[in-house]
TrEMBL record:
Highest taxon of source: Eukaryota
Any single biological process term in GO: calcium ion import across plasma membrane
InterPro entries linked: MID1/Yam8
Coiled coil spans: none
Taxonomic lineage of the native organism: Eukaryota, Fungi, Dikarya, Basidiomycota, Agaricomycotina
GO molecular function, one term: calcium channel activity
Protein name: Stretch-activated cation channel Mid1
């Protein structure tokens, strides 16, 4: 009789426990009693995210067991009880649940949290891939999500060997990934909070998104591009991108330019897809905020597309498709690196001496630009010089008969390029420069790539 009574009590307790269902997220405070039941599955990923508090405060503890739906896992241990260890406010545990299981919570009080259950990996995650900052003005910024859905590009083969046109046609974009932008002044210390989507999206994000669209910036894949306005000049900002509602990418940082910075932003040029920065141009026609392929003056864009067209024609005279050109690169690589170099030197990037890193490759300039005289005169600006490696990458990838040459670091390369930031300024050792990169995740940009 006592056994039956205990069995009845255990069943009643199990029935009062919320059931966590597959591919869904529980989002509340802890129930009473603080246990959840899990469905049976060959494998489950249980993920947890805290939705309030700070990283240096006491946090609740989460335990999981796959023994039975009436178990009460906790810090007291027991058979097959495992703790879900939290890092930066979230954590996960993956295991087999042939007969279901239980998640137990200790010390949560009224703190809100999320628990996700999935058979396809954790629903909560801090992504390894990072968002990207294009550039900023005093009040606006071009920002990008991490890359996803990389395009499939085959290597052309003889006899149907052809290269992309000077103005390539973009492939059909993929279905957009659910992506949310979070931007806040760095002084708000978002990095000291749980690095979870429910925590970050509960905060008020700075600025106004005036355009959000997909853009194939490079071979890494499509990105969500945001044009953000309404920012404050000379202010440090922290940025996150939240993907699929619960996955966090970031943080990365950027600084808006001073209020006297006058160069507008330019982006979404199919012939120069990597460009997303400020150029020495007058303000775009109202009500537009940035220049793109629809409003950039033809006198500026046409010389670039004409050079790309001529270069592609000459490159196609080489037997790239019939002969074994190189075990490392192809003529398609040559065209791609040449495009990057030509765009970097043809479209000067404005810099703000007040907010640029002290060691950046800056050059006071006066229009017309000697590399692209189509830029309007009368606009004095400070230019961020192209990285020398944009040139040397083209030199390495292209056939010798093209006669492409780059200036040497030991002579006059520093007059027109940023030298020694990525590769060594002495012997060209790749990655041997002072920073090893043209930019970093803290908003520093040393040369233009």
């Amino acid at each position: 009789m006592l056994f039956l009574l205990l069995l009845h009590v255990a069943r009643a307790a199990a029935q009062n426990r919320p059931l966590l269902t597959l591919d869904n997220v529980y989002s509340q405070s802890a129930p009473s009693p603080p246990f959840f039941t899990l469905p049976s599955a060959s494998q489950l990923a249980i993920s947890v995210a805290l939705c309030s508090g700070n990283l240096d405060t006491a946090v609740p503890r989460f335990f999981v067991t796959n023994s039975s739906s009436t178990a009460s896992p906790g810090s007291g241990g027991g058979d097959d009880v495992f703790e879900i260890i939290l890092s930066q406010g979230q954590g996960s545990w993956t295991g087999v649940f042939p007969s279901g299981g239980v998640v137990g919570v200790e010390g949560a009080g009224q703190m809100p949290f999320e628990i996700g259950v999935s058979q396809d990996g954790p629903l909560h995650e801090i992504l390894d891939t990072q968002p990207l900052v294009g550039d900023s003005t005093g009040t606006a910024a071009l920002l990008f999500s991490p890359a996803y859905s990389a395009p499939t590009t085959g290597i052309p083969a003889y006899p149907n060997y052809s290269l992309p046109a000077a103005i390539p046609s973009l492939p059909a974009p993929p279905a957009p990934t659910n992506c949310t932008l979070v931007v806040s002044p760095t002084s708000n210390s978002l990095t000291s909070m749980p690095q979870t989507a429910c925590m970050l999206t509960s905060l008020k994000s700075s600025g106004t998104i005036v355009n959000e669209s997909l853009w194939l910036r490079d071979h890494e894949g499509w990105r969500t591009e945001w044009l953000l306005t309404g920012l404050t000049a000379k202010t440090n900002y922290t940025m996150y991108a939240i993907q699929e509602q619960h996955k966090v990418a970031g943080p990365i940082f950027f600084t808006t330019k001073s209020s006297s910075f006058s160069c507008p932003l330019v982006s979404r040029l199919p012939y120069c897809p990597m460009i997303a920065y400020a150029m020495p141009l007058p303000p775009p026609p109202s009500p537009q905020v940035v220049y793109d392929s629809t409003n950039l003056p033809a006198g500026i864009s046409d010389p670039v597309t004409e050079v790309l067209t001529n270069f592609t024609t000459v490159l196609n005279t080489f037997a790239c498709g019939r002969d074994f050109y190189s075990p490392i690169v192809t003529c398609q690589d040559c065209q791609s690196t040449y495009r990057t170099w030509l765009c970097a030197i043809s479209f000067p990037r404005c810099a703000d001496p007040d907010t640029a890193p002290a060691a950046a490759a800056l050059l006071p300039s006066q229009a017309p630009n000697m590399r692209n005289s189509a830029f309007p005169p009368g606009n004095n600006y400070t230019q961020l010089l192209p990285c020398l490696e944009a040139c040397t990458a083209t030199d390495r990838a292209c056939p010798n008969f093209l006669g492409f040459k780059c200036p040497l670091p030991r002579f006059n390369a520093a007059q027109s390029y940023g030298v020694g930031y990525i590769d060594s300024g002495v012997d060209g050792e790749q990655g041997g420069g002072s920073t090893g990169a043209w930019s970093d995740n803290y908003g520093n940009v040393w040369c233009n790539w």
